[in-house]
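Recap from last week: sequence in, structure out.
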Amino acid sequence: MTKNIFKAPLFTLALSLIGLSVAHAQPRVSSIRPELLKKVTKTPKPSIEFDVINSPYASWGVMPQESSSINLLGAWKKFEKKKEVVVAVIDTGIDPNHPFLKDNLKGAKGSASASDYGMDFSKSAVNEYQPVDQHGHGTHVSGIIKSVYPDVKILSLKYYNPKASGQDNLDSTIKALRYAVEANVDIINYSGGGPEPAIEELRILKEAERKGILVVAAAGNEESNIDVKKNAYYPASYGLSNIITVTAHDQSLQMLSSSNYGAKSVDISAPGYRIKSALPGGRSGFLTGTSQATAFVSGVAAMLKSQGPGLSAAQMKQIIVASAKKENTMAGKCSSGGRLDATKAVADSVNEISGRKVAQRDPSSKKKTPGKIVYRLTK
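Predicted structure tokens:
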């Protein structure tokens, strides 16, 4: 299992955000194991898609030969880019010089540069336009999104400071969410959360819903059924039409024992076990958790939005959920009863755009209700 390294009473992050793990069944660790980090050794190839697959930063989640992957190759073949898509990654920041990510960054003022590659809202931030990743999680998540959709633009919005209190990190999260919504990004990837809802966070997410911004949220890693009120995990449990909640599975299509689940509150599963991706310093490494699974869904959502600029957040969510590949191991664990299928999602989006098919209603859309709104507390 992963380990809760930095503790914030009553405000926790998605476990994979603070636990750097190589295998959920192994002894807990408190840092990235150096033997798992590999330096860049391969030369880029002409095709950007196949360059991604053959890079040192790709995981089994995108490999065509892996039957438990997200079935990405067919999606790339069907995909046609219509617009640039910006995904706001609200996380621990990013490595702006990483060879896998440096060409995908978006600056707060426009094109990314050495002095502007996102925003830092974390407590005691040194430079607001330089969200440097001193943790690794934000770079890792961003790398997964890029491995799914190589042309994505990443707006890095840093909120996390391991030395800050839970309330400080929540305040920083709210600032980052507000910025993303006001900037009219296409998709928000947020892998953190906690057991207590916050009224201002909900207000901002409702504004995102009104604007049609999709929010991809981690289900969390507390081994809990978040359909049960006492186990609710926010923002995943707010129940808004623009929030898609993601749990995680391994290569054997088993849901991770550490992952939260819920037939009503969780929408879909995606790869989350020993996922290889980028890490600061031009490196690659493995992390495990629902944070990693969330990033795969954000990548597919970015493809849908790029191909269908007119798709609403609710439509994208419905397409992704309705196109999930059913698995017996996920029955009763998420509303779709299945896992992310990129090829089916892209194909269904083409039909949706052309009017040949209306996506099935999200089976959880009528069952979710926003929880009681109180502020997250700290001791």
